[in-house]
What does this fold into?
Amino acid sequence: MAEISVESATAQAIEAIQSPELVSAVLKRGTGTEKITLRPVEIKGQRMVQVSAFDGRKTDVKNYIGEPLVVAVSELLMVPYRSVFVATLNEEVHIQVSKKGKPLVTRKRKQAAALPQLDHNRTIQRPLPEGTPDLFLQRIGLMTADGRIKADRQRKFQQINEFIRVACETAEFTALPNGPMLIVDFGCGNAYLTFGLHHYLNERLNIPCELIGVDRNADSVERDRAKAAELESDSIHFEVASIGDFIPPRQLDVVVALHACDTATDEALAQALRHESRFIFSSPCCHHHLQVQLAAVKPRGGHASLMRDGIIRERLGDLITDELRAMILRIAGYKVDIIEFTSLEHTARNLLIRARRVKREDVSDLVADYQALKRDFGVTPYLETISPPWVQALLS
It folds into this structure.
């Protein structure tokens, strides 16, 4: 990982995209609505690169080979970009440009080579597939009447399917003997992903479940209620409330918090701990609370050098925040891992904390590691301060 000039970063991106080992690439420009996706395709026996450019309204698709590809890629990268993600057979290259115009380049070797899909028209196996009309996907505005996903909704369609896949991989959902499973989505926003999970469990797996979305934005809640009414579901409800003030009607089974800003993620995790939710899925967003603490103290030992560059300090703050959250959940009796939720080509905020409640064991070593990490960086995570008393007792 190194901080370099825009010209050098751009040259690395061009080199990777032009490589015969290209698997896929995504370029984001402007406010993030302008997105260009590149992937190799085979057309009439020739290997070409397909460039799909979405400008926020429509998608323009062109195929290139040879010198025209070199020209097209160079022109695409002449316009100031926010991020570039390139995957080749053996490596991933990610370039993120800060608000001040400074690029950060991350190169990561793959453990196993990923072969590109060269089919011109690909069929991908998903929990909610494309190609067959699905009333749910149509009513939430993603699918046309003939079963095609709208061009400007492809990204959301992929995210819904990925969330369902990860949730089912983690939880091994089964019907409960004492009533429907309760899913609570804290800071639900548009709630597309939990709408999708609710639909998949009820309609595809025949597992009864109830969804409650919680958001303090009354306009968002009204829009979600309108979507629920259109779906004609009596097991989907939305409430206007702050995360900390919400009182669930019964035992929580699944807590979801996707891109809840800053300490809102901690409020959701605290609710999960307070009500001992069986499963937790949290994709954190911004991490301002701990960033302020990092800026106010000098870390111990060699860690001080990590505070020199702003973009490195910011990344480090994000990682420390999420690791401390995961450590608290482990100490509280959860099996936790942090995974890449969606590829970096879709969002830079792509981590998912997923947790499953297990039998609580001796946590003395975990507590020692937790206290050492806090001590090394001179920070206290917000989640610790709002956790239920029994969790705070374990942490001390």
In short: Confidence is low (pLDDT under 50) at residues 343-347. The first helix runs from residue 6 to 17.
